[in-house]
Amino acid sequence: TPLTATQQTQTTCPYCGVGCGVDISQQNGQLLPVAGDSRHPSNFGRLCVKGSALHETISHNGRLMYPLMNGQRSSWSQAINLIADKIQQVIHTHGPDAVAFYGSGQLLTEDYYVANKLMKGFIGSANMDTNSRLCMASAVASYKRAFGSDTVPGCYEDLEQADLLVLTGSNAAWAHPVLYQRMVAAKKANPDMKVVVIDPRRTATCDLADLHLAIRPGSDAFLFTALLAYLGETNNLDHHFIALHTEGFGSALETARQQCRSLKEVAEQLDIEASDLAQFFHWFADTPRTVTFYSQGINQSATGTDKGNAIINVHLATGRIGKPGATPFSITGQPNAMGGREVGGLANQLAAHMDFSAAERDRVRRFWQASNLAERPGLKAVDLFQAVKRGEIKFLWIMSTNPLVSMPDADDVKEALKHCELVVVSDCMADTDTAAAAHVLLPAASWGEKNGTVTNSERRISRQRGFLPPPGEAMPDWWIVTQVAHALGHADAFNYSHPADIFDEHARLSAFENNGSRDFDLSGLSGMSRAQYDAMAPVQWPVNAQYPQGRQRFFDDRRFYTDNGKARFIAVAPELPLPRTGGDLIMNTGRVRDHWHTMTRTGKAPRLAQHISEPYADIHPQDAALRGIEDGSLVRIFNPRGSLLLRAHISDNQRTGEIFVPMHWTSRYASAARMGTLTDNSVDAISGQPELKYSAVNAEPF
Ligand code: SF4
């Protein structure tokens, strides 16, 4: 066969919040191995193992091809009509709050936008939450407390411009590998750069560390609050910045002083050497270009919001924000965790970085011409599934996520779904744990089959572009939601024929009566033609008259989005996690390098199973010896909520009294490895983010 011209497509990797650009090439209808997009400013051609195996994870094996109702194949119109009828009946009988949607950071922004609009603008409830609640809700809450807005201040380039890189609650080498590659290259180029890793475990990221602080789990807020006290004590403060651009410094410092009286006491609290703590404080105090990079080890905590603010406090105290190489920097877990926040995909948000104040409700109502706008915030994920269990939610639609694996106390969530009158799951895969609990299954188009945008951890909006036809009757999520909206009688408000139409409306809403009062502004991207949308280059928001090419850093102008324009210190009185019952070991959870979340796609690539092929538990030699557990043997990890069967990895990378279990394995790959069945469902009181890093368990030989 003569070779045809190579077809090229630029798209974005869906496997983590770094958001790398990917080059897709096809020849004679065959997909060639993917490559990194050298022009994409977030990865400059780099890919990690997961990204470079993308073409191996898109087979149709296991795909959901057709709508199913109670296990029987149906047409789209039958399924859509059933869903719309049920929503109407539930609203009529029980009110709109008996309807709920649960979305995902795997949805594209356009998918998210229409789902959020339907629920909050037309069904009349804000019971739309998302698995981003498990990912970034605490970072959002701490940004809003400090800045008055959910604004990520920095950019990836800051990682290369820093002289001190502090990674806390992050195993970037495995969870955000391309950013880690950028850090490695930066340290090589700047041998004076210091890297401090704060993590109870010795992880692969520690290979880059000049100092590893293996702190007691959950004690991060003590460390950063003590650092604030130290900066005050040693007068390493930016007095000018504090006086002109912040408020609340005095009470934050006083609280820090009361909580952290001496370095020795704090080191005991953290369970590390006082000399190591002093070294870190000294480096921090002396290094103007400091980035504090944090992820789920901070966020997935019952005090995650305070932890985030404790980090932001030390950056405000030293004026290290809005400058090259100087910023607090939360890193999202999912490819579009940020896009969900932008459209209002969390239950306590309304839309486009607007909440439920009277003025913002009025603004959104007028823009959407909403027939039934939600009046108040809805239920956050853990509360939402508890309401399902109590029978208060009669209709639940789960989109692109697998909460029967990922939610805390996952078996309780499984039980809860039995109390729903109708559970709808839209997914690309047929046999997830959650799909098994659905009455109606809707086949969703997957990565490579649909068009839209995602926003990565540095606020960069990139296009995902389709280059393959969806299999069977699979359709994009935005189309599915739009069809239901039409069947509910809202055709005028959901008159979209392409994701470009939705993006345009999203951009216009972000700019509507904005006048610079909100950080999120895409006015410069509204009014694009279909061709311009198709060709859209990656860009960091905002994109408006002032920043037509996007904005690299926020707060370089010292203007925050609070009422008085000043950043707020939050007085943090740090708390250690409460003692847990149910076992004498503390279970920590997280990602492995080569799998994505519940493995529905990465589980398909043999290459990605080579790194770690089966679920395991890392356990310290002393804990293993105490229990008669041998390296490589099977071990049962259990508590009153459930039981897992895992391979024991005996390793002194663990602290004693703690074990680590990866988050990925599901019933499809291992019948007893769903770590969510053991995790604690306590949540952060402000953000509602669950504690997924601190559950009490037991371990015994199997
Ligand atoms: Fe994909 Fe993340 Fe790897 Fe980049 S770092 S290639 S976005 S998984």
Overall average residue pLDDT: 95
**Shape, per Cα inertia axes:** globular
Strand content: 15-25%
Individual helix count: 24
Spatial separation of the terminal alpha carbons:
57 Å
Count the E strands.
27
**What count of structural domains?**
4
Overall structural class, as computed from helix and strand content, comes to alpha/beta
Radius of gyration: 24 Å
What does this structure look like?
Belongs to the prokaryotic molybdopterin-containing oxidoreductase family. NasA/NapA/NarB subfamily. This is Molybdopterin-dependent oxidoreductase. The model has no long low-confidence stretch (mean pLDDT 95). The protein has four domains: 7-56, ADC-like domains (N-terminal domain of TfIIb); 68-123 and 346-455 and 469-496, 3-Layer(aba) Sandwich (Rossmann fold), CATH 3.40.50; 137-331, Dimethylsulfoxide Reductase, domain 2 (3-Layer(aba) Sandwich); 585-701, Barwin-like endoglucanases. The longest helix is centred in the N-terminal third of the chain and has 19 residues, at 76-94. The chain is an alpha/beta fold and 702 residues long. Strand 18 (452-455) and strand 19 (460-464) form a beta hairpin. Strands 6-5-17-16-15-7-8 form a seven-stranded mixed sheet, sandwiched between helices. The protein has a six-stranded mixed beta barrel with strand order 22-26-23-25-24-27. It is globular, with a radius of gyration of 24 Å. The termini are far apart. The protein contains 24 helices and 27 strands. It binds iron/sulfur cluster (SF4). Iron/sulfur cluster (SF4) binds next to helix 1 and helix 7.
